[in-house]
Amino acid sequence: GVSSGACTSSMLLKDGELYVANVGDCRVVLSRKGVAKALRKDHRLTREDERLRIENTNLILFSLSLFKSKSIEITYNILQGGFVHCQNGIWRAQGLLAVSRAIGDLHLKEWIISELEIKRLRLTSDCQFLIMFSDGLWDKVNDQEAVDVVLREKNLLMSCKKLVDMSSSRGSMDDITVMVIDLLNFVTTMLEVSVGIGSDSEAVLEAEAMDELL
User: Fold this and answer.
1) CA-CA distance, 122 to 17, in Å (whole number)?
2) SS in 3 state form for the chain?
3) CA-CA distance, 45 to 86, in Å (whole number)?
4) Rounded to an integer, what distance in angstroms lies between the CA atom of residue 97 and that of residue 113?
5) Where does the PPM-type phosphatase domain lie (predicted)?
6) Among 21, 75, 129, 170, which lies 20 to 30 A Cα-Cα from 181?
7) Sign of the C-alpha dihedral computed for residues 180, 122, 113 and 29 taken in this order
8) What is the pLDDT of residues 68-121, one digit of tens each?
9) What is the pLDDT of residues 156-184, one digit of tens each?
10) How far apart, in Å, are the Cα atoms of 214 and each of 43, 53, 116, 134, 159?
11) Going from the N-terminus, what domains does the chain have, and what CATH number goes with each?
12) 61 or 117: which leads in pLDDT
């Protein structure tokens, strides 16, 4: 129905480059030499820029007359846009959603947009794997913990199960979706194709990739 919505993350590997797109608070984390790096910022109302965007959507100025006589008029000006407030430590839009972007939620689409944010970076030899996961995991397990579990478990399927169990044991009541993508085969193929580029050019590519992550 019109009240249903979803968050999503997607990725594309093409010609040695990684593209990551997200709407909402699903997260994509890259392991580079064992260090976790979130590739996109979550679309949550903890982000000041997202709160301001909603509050400024269709901003209207109201003038409320408080007192009026022949010689004096007192008015109170009210600016009203989207409604954002914090309750029990959780920011919500229109008193309902904690995410600021999503697919669906048509009754809130005036404020909860579905516009993607996209990240592009070039794969390098130290890119190990990606973890794609929903907030049911990262609300209880931080990015580096998730990377450490995958590094220890080795088997990708078992590492996913381990992460789900870890989040559940810490009290997660939300849906928990986890996917681990091994990048080593893609990186190896890319480097084999680019053998003729030369070490200087490869160093430039490494530097560009690092700049894109900063």
Assistant:
1) 4
2) CCCCEECEEEEEEECCEEEEEEECCCEEEEEECCEEEECCCCCECCCHHHHHHHHCCCCEEEEEEEEECCCCEEEEEEEECCCEEEECCEEEECCCECECECEECHHHCCCCECCCEEEEEECCCCEEEEEEECHHHHCCCCHHHHHHHHHHHCCHHHHHHHHHHHHHHCCCCCCCCEEEEECHHHHHHHHHHCHHHCHHHHHHHHHHHHHHHC
3) 9
4) 12
5) 1-183
6) 170
7) positive
8) 555 555 554 444 567 788 878 888 888 888 899 999 888 888 888 899 999 999
9) 999 999 999 999 999 998 889 999 999 98
10) 19, 24, 20, 23, 28
11) 27-39+123-213 (3.60.40.10), 48-98 (no CATH)
12) 117
Kindly state the tokens that stand for 183. 């990048």
What's this model's pTM, rounded to 2 decimal places? 0.74
Contact 122, 193 (CB under 8 A): no
Q: How far apart are CA 93 and CA 57, in angstroms?
A: 12
Kindly report the length of the chain: 214
Q: How far is CA 135 from the centre of its chain?
A: 10
Residue with the two structure tokens 């995958």: 150
